[in-house]
Amino acid sequence: MLGASKKTLSFTMHPEEHTGSYYAATANEVTNFQPLQGEQRADVCVIGAGFTGISTALHLAERGFNVHAVEASKVGWGASGRNGGQVIGGISGEKHIAKKLGRDQEELFGELRWAGHDIIRERVSRYDIQCDLKWGYLDVAIKQRHLRDFQADYEKLQKAGFPHEVRMLSREETRETIGTDAYLGALLNMGNGHLHPLNLCIGEANAAVSQGATVYEQSPVLDIVRGSKPKVITQQGSVSADAIVIAGNAYHSLARELRGIMFPVRSFIIATEPLSDDIVETINPQDLAICDPNFVLKYYRLSADKRLLFGGRINYFGEEPHYIRAKLRKKMSQIYPTLADVRIDYAWGGTIGVPINRAPQFGRITPNIFYCQGYSGHGVNVTHLAGQILADAVAGTIERFDLFAGVKPIIVPGAHVLGKPMVALGILYYQIKDRL
Ligand SMILES: Cc1cc2nc3c(=O)[nH]c(=O)nc-3n(C[C@H](O)[C@H](O)[C@H](O)COP(=O)(O)OP(=O)(O)OC[C@H]3O[C@@H](n4cnc5c(N)ncnc54)[C@H](O)[C@@H]3O)c2cc1C
Predict the structure, then answer these.
(1) How many angstroms does the Cα of residue 207 sit away from the middle of ligand 1?
(2) Which atom of ligand 1 is nearest to the CA of 11?
(3) 45 strand-pairing partners
(4) pLDDT tens-place string over residues 282-293
(5) β strands within 219-292, DSSP E
(6) pTM (2 decimals)?
(7) Cα–Cα distance between 371 and 220 in angstroms, integer?
């Protein structure tokens, strides 16, 4: 072991040893990057190979930095390779951030809301990443207040000259569009979309390598030695670098400063068997991603091979596929009774980092150790923006980084010890709020 002999080093692998997901089963490739071995040197060492880490690494490698990304498991093993694949505009916690900074929300976030989309679009095209990227998204309303919120969003987008089709749908139009009477109406937004997240993450990792980055898998980081040339330590090796970026989101506890500022909230997804053309024509002929605005929300879409990928939050911390199947089948059947007996081929879960104020957490632990985490359910888009902002900050352009870092996280003492019961209580609270 290198460099940290006085410490007892350990890494507790999260219980989700294997994702069991539809995405893992349909990945374009099984990555096989070598573990970190020996003493390595880099300009920047990134910890974690999800969207935040890989996006940062790719931005930096494109600018000529020598970047090494160290992943405990596999590229995209965390939330990035397990999520709903919904490419959603906006940044969670916008209201809070604007208020804290005393700035106008529209002026502050107008273009930033879609910046991650542009990065994804550009990368998919430039590196020819096969990840089933499709545009088209429906925010569906369960309550009248949701319709009012959507109408306000619609007007804002119109006023800002949003370049994609956006339209309010009546209850009837919504039923015609997605074959269910479960909603009061919807907001159609052709600027949002969906994709196969694991294939995007793997494609971006390969792109980073093509630009000179090095990726290590099966290399849990056990310790970070702080200093002018900080060092990342794993069981068999180390990387010393001018700067480190921590991108472990809800899956790490590498720095005491990051404890208790974010809750690990579980979300789950099932994938049905491929559906017949008739069913697809009834439930989603336009191939839209669909999401309701509740905190304890439901989100769903078709995969490229026409399975319904149906996700939602349930108050559960396990991995038992039978349990996940049963719970989500019930929720899916409430929306689509005709799918009540459809076969479910995959069921899996993942962990989302949710800050109390919902605002993404950018910061530095020391002048040369950066981090970003806590995107709530908007990570596909915002991690890509975060990667760009982190890369800018490492390269010395810190304005956007400092803007976000200026919003201090709300600390919940003991959250890292009492995480699960606190999350359970929190979900209960929001479930009640959702019903009002
Ligand atoms: C079920 C589910 C559904 C979701 N649906 C959506 C959605 O539809 N749209 C959307 O926008 N967002 C969604 N999200 C949120 C989104 O997936 C996340 O916000 C985003 O992927 C976070 O990316 P990340 O790279 O920061 O973290 P992660 O993807 O979790 O990556 C962190 C990585 O760090 C690694 N790591 C941790 N500790 C160490 C260590 N000590 N050493 C080395 N590596 C380490 C982990 O192994 C992991 O690979 C969903 C999340 C889940 C779980």
Answers:
(1) 19
(2) 41
(3) 68, 244
(4) 999 999 999 999
(5) 223-225, 231-233, 237-246, 263-272, 289-291
(6) 0.93
(7) 17
